[in-house]
């Protein structure tokens, strides 16, 4: 099973490699360091969001509010710098993450305590948080000039040629993927998504874990908001609108099962990278940009189709195996024990 | 119990039966509650908001509700079978774009309209094939076609806006029945709503949808062709979205690739607010109609009262949350009360 | 699996719904005359044009309700423009309000126009997202007594009384072409980074810039492409990246939209192309100040959006007070801005755009 | 002293008292049986021990000390392990992870040590004497293997009390024997086992003590050695059960061939199945669980597809894969799994009852509530389905009444061929007899009945002809009078020996 999942992620990686190779063959500048930096920069925010979404989706839930959370925290970060220009970077990041976590906690509390479907609740908070963002901003835009130079540098700086934002995203990915894969709590999230009733019976505190998953997703959306503010420098109330579908798309393309229980943060991150790269390479290939969205849609359909095909193959193999087991068992066995005393 | 299963098909939800039974009274009560809320809001707005209680305003309000109302009808049926179609707004946009392109190339408008609706049906059929023949989750499939159809809309019409539709057609889209308050488009939508209501609540087909949404396997064992029913629902959903695209194009006299962007969430919000369970198997069409109108009236009244547009987002979102939290909370409270009663009852027996 | 049902006995439910839908469509189709094609309908209805008599000496009414309906509320550019309108309304003593959609889509302004008309607004100052989509609603608002002034982006001339043009398209196109030619030394490849693909004013400017570039003195400048950033910061940023990657020899970028210009400037300032690739366009001093100072942008142009709103408010008040009817040649006074004359098609021009550069950019605050 | 003792526990749901003042104890090293009709309160007792339900009154003691079981985690901590009939594993996770979920061995920094986990799982399986790959995904494990995983999980928890809720219901003979060996092994190590089953043969083979419950109350606890099946049945039912099987096999003169199956095959499930069923005849399809019997009847009804062969009803060929066409031709299938396949648990009694014939009930395509209610009530009455209001959710009915409702919903279609798959599984003795009488009566009226059953006495007591399947093949056709347990078992297993 592990091998199969790994293959699934390799598949997305392969698609990514093909896309890059094809584009680079057409225009070698696509592989220039500036160009790679650009793609990494563009992808890093989506990667952070996709990693957070993975944590929720493996528990058989969904968080549609991430776009609004990102918008709200991006604006809050800007406001923070306007109010206190000397705020250290770390404090700003913590504040953004904290605000995001708070939004996530709101989702998580409603979903886990009131026991209502995540799709409905997060669709609701998508509206509510966006509305709060709008009425808070009320037409105000935060410009690069309002933000301290150090913060903007954080958005564009590189270490050994790698953008700092991409490093942050990679660190988030590494931490979350390890947490999900190799820590008890992480594995419990998979257990909950795989079979909620069994999770409850085996004593996993399902409500608390689902709550935690939403807090993590919210916190990462908050972090993404800060990164967004640093990277783009201009923040208004519309930041991140419609991003939720892109994030879900990245997660699905990356092989995280929409019904929970399987998929990895690495896969989701590769999915996010693939979606971003499609955007850039279509631009480089001078394909009519109108085709971009259609291509993304096609990719999503292909990805879930592939998942289904792989799952069907596993099921067939399992069936074949257990049929073989049964045949072997029946040849050797008999049912005497039960039948002998039956109805005596 | 609900949160661990969100959009899982019913058989993947062990223990759901128990949770459902406990709240089985809710749907009937919810749509009734919603209708009363609607009446209250209408009454309150008429008294408190200047300019609300006029025929002209009713016309504006109802015109704005037509597109959401149209798409909400088949969406209700789709959600009751436990599926969802997020591609409706993109279908609307693609049909609108194609409509513009065909009109540009000189097709007669009558044919263009039929072609747009037919195209909607085909797009719905594509969703249906992915969901029923390949067995893929409709949430993921229709997020995919959401992107794909919108993308195709831009491919078809690009950045143009086709606007030179004949005036008698575009004015027919906003014209009202004698009396001035009721747009013909809303009359059509209402007739369609009645048709959908009858189909859902009083025909074998409708009954089968509830059975499918509650337990698809048992439905199959009862001889109901589950896949075929779902497939046709997606087709109908696409066709009605195409029809909504035609309406949208004529009403705004503008065929554009971005028409109706984001409408899918508004439709889903209205349907869920209307008391349809996202898990399928529960909900009424009356509730959904009340949900559509409630959101429309609120939007209109708040705008008239000069409340900023962002407040409307907050209200919509909160209503949506309330629509699932309140029935659940009431059910839980009732269960607790019932337990308490029983305890008191046993005490009485003991000491009495 | 889809099962074929040869018995046909249980067919029906779904197709009944389908029939109902098709029937309704057919009803809609037959509602109008049969066989309507585009050719028969070539002439769009034009019910606009000035009506009634102008009285140039009529005083400005002080009881006017003036509503600003921007493309999108919470958009900083329109916040400034509407602010100018508010100042003007304050001067002549009317009631000011702002109302609008949160997303800039064609259809979303319609319900706001309807509401404003329902509220008995005297003047609607509108920046249209789409030239046609709001027309029906505007007609109905004008029937109900409102005067409609468009600013920034016009509707079909038939649907409004006046259009307050921020600068003539020719002026804008010429200024930008001059600026970019100067910055790239008169030769090389240039690209345009526009807003949404169907933004009326953008497309008009682009067309005129193409014309301008065809002139002999710009023979060495080649316009290679037009990219669309949808007036979204992020998209504009990415489109800039794409332009530089696709066109290695690109010498300059013109972005006739504030969002696009700021995003492009930010990209350039953080990339190896800073100072190498010239950038100009339309932008606000506040957004661009930093990039002018750090050398990313030499100069850019814009009108003052506050003045635009201010003028629109006065134009609307003049209409509603009966000073003007919107006919060509009429004049009115717009407070501090002085006198304006209505041109052809009911257009009032604010004036040529201002060019901002290192020397003057700090003098403005918007 | 008992390892675990229930003291006077009671539990009510709404107005229904599910368990009233039940007390009994489990001794270390002993398998203790628990029997009772459906609705007798066995499952509620299990759920209280699992920490899923809290007793309203009374309590649980472990080694004489009272323990509070508020959550499943409490039961776990108290050393109580519950193995459910259908184990609840995490299908996406590996077997080893399923065993150690929440308690995975960790290495540095709290990271899970997968190698150590694998070793520990292998050790557990070695102790149980079974071979399961700890690294494989739990999805696709047979039910027997899933139970083994559950037992391994319990062992790893150092559980001392094992509660097994109908663990053998879905097992084959070999698997049952392996399970019994495992259970005996547990007892040798001093564990106490509570074993719940509907099958007396298993109870009498495995258990030392036996507790009987009826209507939520404790009836008796005795050593098995002092009991006979008859006494136990009498205690369970609370009355004498006379003739369990009302039918005299072969008494009816069979009529024309109604159902004709030829050469039916589906890869991996069954091959070349052919048989005829005549009007007025009950034909049993016997064999081990997994022999392909249910698959055959599902293919006949059209719920599943088949690769080759044909099904004819009254001479007309049925299109494959269309239950609707099969229903139109007069075939009805009462499926194996009542809760998942037979009924829509969320819908009301009347909606379920009319689900199979909505179209005939509709006038001008419309259904009227009254007509529907009348039709539903008529059949519910004829089968004496005990229910509250017809608008109550069907989930409120007892298992036996649910089964009667499934029968009612199908009989209402006036079928020519009635296929029943495990018609009496998991229903109480009283209702069982009613169902048997009903089937017998239907055959007398000329219906062709196909019965799939794993209960040999039922097969022998009801069938005019017995078809036996083994590994997807039809291996024997025996006339009802001549069929014996021996001959059926021989055909079902391919072996001559009968006893253990």
From TrEMBL, chain A:
Entry membrane topology: Multi-pass membrane protein
For the region Disordered, what residue ranges are annotated? Answer: 324-344
Stretches that traverse the bilayer: 40-59, 80-102, 150-180, 210-233, 245-278, 290-311
Keywords attached to this Swiss-Prot or TrEMBL record, sorted alphabetically, are: Cell inner membrane, Cell membrane, Membrane, Transmembrane, Transmembrane helix, Transport
Principal localization? membrane
A Pfam family assignment: BPD_transp_2
Domain of life, per UniProt, equals: Bacteria
MF annotations from Gene Ontology: transmembrane transporter activity
Free-text function comment from the UniProt entry? Part of the ABC transporter complex LsrABCD involved in autoinducer 2 (AI-2) import. Probably responsible for the translocation of the substrate across the membrane.
Q: What protein does this entry describe?
A: Autoinducer 2 import system permease protein LsrC
Q: Which organism is it from?
A: Streptomyces radicis
Traced from the root, the source organism's taxonomic lineage reads: Bacteria, Bacillati, Actinomycetota, Actinomycetes, Kitasatosporales
From TrEMBL, chain B:
Annotated region (Disordered) at 1-20
Subcellular localization, per the record?
A: Cell membrane
The molecular function terms in GO held by this entry are: transmembrane transporter activity
Under InterPro entries, the record lists:
ABC_transp_permease
Q: Does the keyword Electron transport apply?
A: no
From which residue to which does any coiled coil extend? none
Its record classes its membrane topology as:
Multi-pass membrane protein
Q: Which GO terms describe its cellular component?
A: plasma membrane
Keywords annotated in UniProt = Cell inner membrane, Cell membrane, Membrane, Transmembrane, Transmembrane helix, Transport
Q: Where are the transmembrane segments?
A: 32-53, 60-80, 111-136, 181-200, 231-250, 285-302, 314-333
Q: Does the keyword 4Fe-4S apply?
A: no
PANTHER family the record matches: ABC TRANSPORTER PERMEASE PROTEIN YPHD-RELATED-RELATED, AUTOINDUCER 2 IMPORT SYSTEM PERMEASE PROTEIN LSRD
Give the protein name, as stated in the record.
Autoinducer 2 import system permease protein LsrD
Q: Give the originating organism.
A: Streptomyces radicis
Lineage of the species this protein comes from? Bacteria, Bacillati, Actinomycetota, Actinomycetes, Kitasatosporales
Automatic annotation (TrEMBL), chain C:
- Note the InterPro entries from the entry: Bact_Solute-Bind_Prot2, Peripla_BP_I, RhaS, SBP_2_dom
- What GO terms describe the biological role, i.e. biological process, of this protein? rhamnose transmembrane transport
Where is the sequence biased in composition, kind Basic and acidic residues? Answer: 37-48
In its UniProt record, a GO molecular function of this protein is: carbohydrate binding
* Location within or outside the cell: Cell envelope
Keyword entries, A-Z: Signal
Q: Where is the signal peptide?
A: 1-31
- Residues of the Periplasmic binding protein domain: 66-323
One GO cellular component term: outer membrane-bounded periplasmic space
The answer to keyword Ligase applying to this record is no
**Any Pfam family:** Peripla_BP_4
Which stretches of sequence are listed as region Disordered? 35-59
Q: Which NCBIfam families match?
A: RhaS
User: Any idea what this protein is called?
Assistant: Rhamnose ABC transporter substrate-binding protein
Organism equals: Streptomyces radicis
Q: Which gene encodes it?
A: rhaS
